[in-house]
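RECORD TYPE: inverse folding
INPUT: structure tokens
STRUCTURE:
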């Protein structure tokens, strides 16, 4: 496998926050270096369910993860497994749910926090955090610049073909401060500023880059149900592929087959949605 792609998931960012508060991402759209579409999450629009659907390309009703309290080792083919099957090198820097979904369940704080297993059938190189103790008074989230740097480190050390990064910072801030607040505006500004230097670096390393979120949040910092604020986020694409018109709404189930098609890996029969990039 020669193709390379990174998926950056900023948890819990509603479409309106991306489009009005992420000046660097929007600047690249204006310059023509990126394209942006609306991305609509599955139902329930809850984090774990969306993580599972993003990578398996099937609904929560099918893969069985109905919420954050129902995390287990998934059985459907996924982006990691199919990229590995096609000869690609995979890596992830993310919440421990991802390790449990795609490598091992339950999560072992010592064994699974950091591993390099070149023969793994899903995530070969993992850097995970659990956010144990998370709550309103203590977010328990790592610094995002450290996460972006960790993904870059994996790319440089192991030559990832597919790398995924997930951070809960903005989701946690939204639950804590809600969305019409100085704190939320500032958090989005800082995320945009931290992410910006890494995108040109990843592009120089030959990666196509997708930046999106798993779901949105409404004005009260809630998500899980139906509605544009809870379900809709933005999806930014940096790369040479052709995409649909800018007013197209990308269904979350399209991400897995799209990423596999960009990597040149076969798309399993379980992934029924059509790729949106070509």
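DESIGNED SEQUENCE:
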């Amino acid at each position: 496998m020669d193709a390379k792609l990174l998926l950056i998931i900023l948890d819990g960012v509603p479409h309106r926050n991306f489009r009005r508060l992420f000046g660097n991402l929007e600047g690249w759209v204006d310059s023509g270096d990126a394209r942006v579409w609306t991305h609509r999450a599955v139902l329930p629009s809850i984090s774990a369910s969306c993580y599972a659907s993003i990578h398996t390309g099937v609904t929560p009703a099918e893969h069985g993860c109905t919420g954050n309290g129902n995390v287990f080792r998934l059985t459907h083919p996924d982006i990691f497994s199919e990229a590995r099957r096609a000869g690609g090198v995979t890596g992830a820097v993310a919440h421990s749910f991802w390790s449990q979904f795609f490598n091992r369940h339950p999560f072992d704080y010592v064994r699974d926090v950091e591993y390099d297993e070149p023969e793994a059938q899903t995530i070969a190189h993992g850097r995970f955090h659990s956010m144990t103790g998370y709550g309103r008074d203590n977010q328990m989230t790592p610094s995002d610049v450290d996460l972006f740097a960790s993904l870059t480190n994996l790319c440089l050390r192991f030559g990832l073909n597919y790398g995924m990064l997930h951070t809960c910072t903005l989701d946690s801030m939204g639950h804590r401060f809600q969305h019409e607040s100085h704190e939320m505006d500032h958090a989005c500004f800082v995320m945009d500023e931290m992410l910006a230097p890494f995108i040109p670096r990843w592009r120089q390393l030959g990666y196509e880059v997708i930046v999106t979120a798993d779901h949105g949040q409404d004005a009260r910092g809630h998500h899980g149900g139906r509605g544009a604020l809870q379900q809709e986020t933005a999806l930014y694409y940096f790369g040479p592929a052709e995409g649909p018109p800018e007013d197209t709404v990308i269904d979350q189930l399209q991400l897995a087959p799209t990423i596999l098609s960009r990597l040149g890996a076969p798309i399993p029969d379980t992934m029924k949605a059509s790729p949106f990039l070509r």
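NOTES: Residues 5-263 form a domain with the Alkaline Phosphatase, subunit A fold (CATH 3.40.720.10).
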